[in-house]
Amino acid sequence: MQTKKMVLATSNEGKVKEIQHFLKGLPVEIQSLKQWDNVPEVEEDKDTFAANALKKARVISLFCGEITLADDSGLEVEALEGLPGVRSARFAGSNASDEENNHLLLEKLKSVPSSQRDARFVCVLALFSPDGAYRIIEGTCEGKILFAPKGDGGFGYDPLFFHEPTGLTFAQMEADVKNKVSHRGKALQKLRAVISEFI
């Protein structure tokens, strides 16, 4: 089968490497946005992860003329009616640090007991072809929000997100364990099958 190019709607080389690892063996040549000039900025202004991911994938695909993969992900906390949700990265403001976002989350949950701190991480991948065909893939991971951070790995809300089956926060997990149980890992595992039929 002929190898097809696939552009990732990200300049994050760590994310590129992660996706390359998951798609090893498939006839796709993965490119990051760093290989393109004057890439349009895509504002994530939709109210669902799927809509944001699809918007990014569509804009970049039509710009590059290649099949494009984009993702949007975040944390949904039951006691906060799904917040921070699509605003996960900018929960405490548009340029908020991970620490500021985590601090605000703990502040909002300070009077919520352990039994009511259920949360889930969501990752939505959107695959878009310049001919207009697309697929949406979702992965989720259930957990609880701790009262204080634990672990120094990962990023974002990982130190607060406790995964009960492993007894660890995402920030305490080795990368290979996290890849098996995480929302992104599950979405990427599903992506393999979708790419095989999509290309």
Characterise this structure.
The chain is α/β, with parallel strands linked by helices. Helix content is 30%, strand content 24%. It has 5 helices and 7 strands, in the order E-H-E-H-E-H-E-E-E-E-H-H. It has helices spanning 13-22, 49-64, 98-108, 175-181, 183-198, and strands spanning 4-8, 28-31, 67-77, 118-128, 134-145, 161-163, 168-169. The longest helix is centred in the N-terminal third of the chain and has 16 residues, at 49-64. It is globular, with a radius of gyration of 17 Å. The model has no long low-confidence stretch (mean pLDDT 93).
Short recap of the structure:
The chain is an alpha/beta fold and 199 residues long.
Topology, pairings included?
Layout (H helix, E strand, L loop, with lengths): L3 E5 L4 H10 L5 E4 L17 H16 L2 E11 L20 H11 L9 E11 L5 E12 L15 E3 L4 E2 L5 H7 L1 H16 L1
Parallel strand pairs: 1-2, 1-3
Antiparallel strand pairs: 3-4, 4-5, 5-6, 6-7
